[in-house]
Each structure stands twice: as C-alpha cells, then as structure tokens.
Amino acid sequence: MSSQTLSTILFLVFVAATLGITFWASRQTKTAADYYAGGRSFSGAQNGLAIGGDYMSAASFLGIAGIIALSGYDGFLYSIGFLVAWLVALLLVAELMRNSGKFTMADVLAFRMSPRPVRTAAGVSTIVVSIFYLLAQMVGAGALVTLLLGVTSETGKALTIVGVGVLMIIYVVVGGMKGTTWVQIVKAVLLMGGATLVTLLVLGKYGFNLSSLLGDAAAQSGKGEAFLKPGLKYGTEAQGLAGKLDLISLGLALVLGTAGLPHILIRFYTVPTAKDARKSVLWGIGIIGSFYLLTLVLGFGAAALVGSKAMDAAGNTAAPLLAQKIGQEIFGEVGGTILLAIIAAVAFATILAVVAGLTLASSSSFAHDLYAHVFKRGNVTDKEEVLVARVSAFVIGAFSIGLGILAQGQNVAFLVALAFAVAASGNLPAILYSLFWKDFNTAGATSAIYGGLVSALVLVIFSPVVSGGKTSLFPGADFAWFPLSNPGLLSIPIGFLAGWIGTKLSKEYNSAKYAEIEVRALTGVGAEKAAEH
Amino acid sequence: MTTRQHDASVYEQAQASERFQELKRRFRAWTFPMTAAFLAWYLLYVVLSGWARDFMGTKVLGNINVALIFGFLQFVSTFGIAWAYSRHMEKKIDPIADEIRHEIEGRTE
Prior knowledge:
By secondary structure, chain A is mostly helical. Helix content of chain A is 75%, strand content 0%.
C-alpha cells in the first residue's frame, strides 16, 4: 500500500471519529450557551488541550519545523514568541475575561460602554482577523495536499479546499462549540503523539545527544555554525537596519497578538469558572511549550537527515519527510511509509481543527454581536440567535472556500502575520484598557479597534509583502513606502495611543459600570455559570 | 443566579471596601511588574538575536550555544512564571475573592 492511500485511510478514520463526536455533541447543544460556549462544562485540562488544538496550526507544525530545517535557529524565534504570548493571556486576560464576558470578545467591551458602536467595532475586527487567518489555513491545505498526497491538478487542489471547508462547516454548524472543542482535543492528542514519536526516534538515532544532532544539522545544511544562531532568515545582515527592526516588529506582534485573537479568547468561556480558565491556560502553556520543543528537534532533524534539496522551497514538507526518513532507517521501507502516512494525516487533522475554531469565532461574533445586539438591539430569542449563528457559520465557511480557491498559489503567509498584528494593535489595547482603566469609554474603544485595524492594514498594503519585491503579492508593481513586512512596531503603539486619545476626547464616564466590571472581573460575582444537563 | 437584580450601588460599595482595594492591590502589584519583567526579558532576547549574533553564537556545551540556552531559558521562565502566578492566585487572591463574592451574592439573593 502506498503512503498516500494509507494516509487517506487514516485521515478518513479521523474524519469519521470526529463526525461521530460532532453528531453526539449536537444532541447536547440546545441553548445559546451550549452552542457558543459548549455549555461552559469543559474541565480545565480538556480546555487546555483544546487551546493547544486551536493554537497549534499547520503553520506552527509544518511551518516552524520547515523554517528551522531551512534557516536553522530563526524558526525557534517564532516558537518562543508564540509561547511567551500565553503569559499575557494568563496574567492579564483569561480569568478577568471569563468573569466579565459571556460569549464573545465584544461582551467585555460592551459591558460598560455604549453597546452598539463597540460591538460593531469588535465584531468587524473579530471577523476580519478570523477570516484572514482562515484564508491562510485554507490555502495552506491546498498546498499541503499537493505535497503529501501527490495531487497536483488545480481541480484536485480546489476539491481539497472544498472538502476541508465542508467538514469544517459540518463541525461548526452541527456540533457548535462542543463539537469543535472535541475535534480540537482529539487533534491535540494526535499531534502531540505524532510529534513525540518522531522526536524520540530522531533523538534515539543520535544517542539522545542534542549537541551531536545540532552538529550534524549544521554540517548538512552547508551553512555551518551560522545555522545554529539567529540571522539566516529574519533581519539578515543584508537587509540592514530595516530587517532588524522587522524582527522586533514580528516579535512584538507575536507576543502581543495571541491575547487578542478572538478564536483563542472565546475558549475561556467554555469552562465553568475563572479558576478553570486559569487551569486551562496552564495546561495550554504546558502542551504548547512541549510541542515547540519537539518542533526544534523535528526541524534540526530534518536539516540533518532529509536535507534542504529534498524539501519544497518553503520547508513545509520537512516534518513529513523526516518521519518517512527516520521510519525507513529504523523500521525499513514499510515503517517509513507508515510514519509518513501518520504525520500527513495528523497535518490534515491539524488544519481542520484550526479552521473549525476560526469559523466558530467569526460566526459567533456575527450572530451574537452584530445580529443580536446591533441589528436587533438585543430583542432576539436564544433559538433565533443560535439559528443565525449556524447560518452565518455556513455562509462564512462557503465564503472562505471560495476565497481559498481563488487565492490558491498566492503567497498568503503574510495573512497570519497580519491577523496577529491586527489582534495586537486593535483588540489587545481595547481589552486591556477596558479591564484595567477606569476612564476608558466608547470613543476610546472604537478608536483603539479601528485605529489598530486600519493602521495595520494600511501599513501592510504599503509594505514589501504586497509590492516592490520578488516575493511580493504583486511583484510587478512598487508602491511600498513602509519598509517593514510586519506592521506591529508602529501599529501596536498606534492602537494604544488611539484608544487613549479617543478616551480623553470624549466626556463619557460611568463610574458605576466600572465598579461593576472591576468587582466582577476580580471576584467572579455574577459570572456566567455552567449549563446543567 | 442572574445579575440583573444587582444594584450598581452594591458594586460601588464593594469596590470602595478596604478588602476589595487590598485584593486589587495584591493582584496588580504582582501581575503588572511581572508582565513588564517577562516582556523586557523577551525583548532582550529578540534584540540580542538581532544585534548580538556573535555573542548568541558563542558555544557553551559542544554545539549548544548561547542562543539555544537563551531560548530554553525563555521556556523555563514562561513555565516558571505560569506556575508562580497560579500559586500567587491560589494563596493571595482566591481566598479574598471568594469571600467578597459570597458576601455580595448572599446579600442580593
């Protein structure tokens, strides 16, 4: 049996199992709290796994291992930013948000401000961030199928995107948050299992001596010791000062973006109390941190054992090829086939779980923030709101399938960086101000969100990722006047500043509401309780 | 159960109480400086990765260099701070927070 057939079978087993879970979950999904927040009945450990499943995208699994395999140490910089970011979420956001919000990010902002403008801003930003991220994952799925299953025709790729999209829509529309969470838990377990297995085999080959693995990787890479230190990919000496500032900009967007990503924030609502939200982030940090340590071995292992010539230009095949190679060396031809198939199937499971989380976040925000509170001014029944959420999940899903097919073959890696930059520049300032600053008001919240969102978008449009370079989206044109490919260094301060100025220019101030959110956030008084089934 | 019956003045009273101010002080006095510290520690790592590459490339143990050890230390500090945070919350925050919550919920139900 070929590896393609085997990985297709394994993937179908995963799909069958997760669809079973989804339909089981749908029978327990009755109220809005069930659909949006899984009845708030997940344990800290379960939600911690789901956080891992939601956060460790194909970009972290295949992408970071690939960057390390091709450019050495620089891939590790990415992992560290992604991990340290969780401390912002843990210390400043998770528990306070669980205590003061209900279903979406906007709930926290709307709490003490004029709800319609604030929900509109937060809803728009949620949908923009999630769709950027979603689109990048969809295009990634198309690229992945070419690499792993040998599908090269345009129709084949388009069909894969449709398949991924349809599954994602079913998970979300049918299973709601409960179904989606279980898909993410199953995926996290598979991903950790697969990555641990390959890591142990690779380390075993080097007698569990990390130094000799690194030495071999550096030697095989042809770049020598430079391969083991920063500077081959981000902020290379050739790029000069702009390159190094870009590195800082990327580092800031990574570390501050996570706690502003809507699909991550809504995970805090799936547990019964703030203490469980704390526990779930602790679990999440443990899992995500361990995973990034594994990718370090996978990346250097691929550099040492597979070599850059055998991989695709972006390095996305580094981890699967490494699995094949190490399997062959240790267990023979069949072993290689089986390991490759396992890792390829895990990669697809990874994409599915992440796109489901993103679709859920954007459709929840559309239904809860824009439809129920902005259009209908809160006059909707639970049932109607859930129906709208399901319909919008379907529409957003279909829309991203379409965009995913159109964007096929485009360089969309910048979309993820953009999503992080918008989250860090617009969402994070609004959330932090609203939890910690008593003067913050409606004008401040809308200025922070729109200021951060617009500045990040504008700076990216006029950056080298869109025009003026060989790898730009439009290599033929050149209207890039902003030298950095990541806008964070400028757009994050703009977001915070806009929020401050907006607040100061408006006279609105409601001390009673601030007292309420402050007491509720810190003590958990009146926090939404878990549903009883 | 529901919060709608809560009079805003209940919250204002609670907020003005000495115990709540103590709770808020304990929370902020720990999390704010710690956030500043881990962000500074992380930025130091990013800046050194951009501007001190020879230093980062210094070998320490076999092929394991300063950059790798610095990176591992970021993992260690992240795990450590997460653990310390949960200890701090359990010991210094949760007891007072629970007390205030029970009191307010008892008063309004």
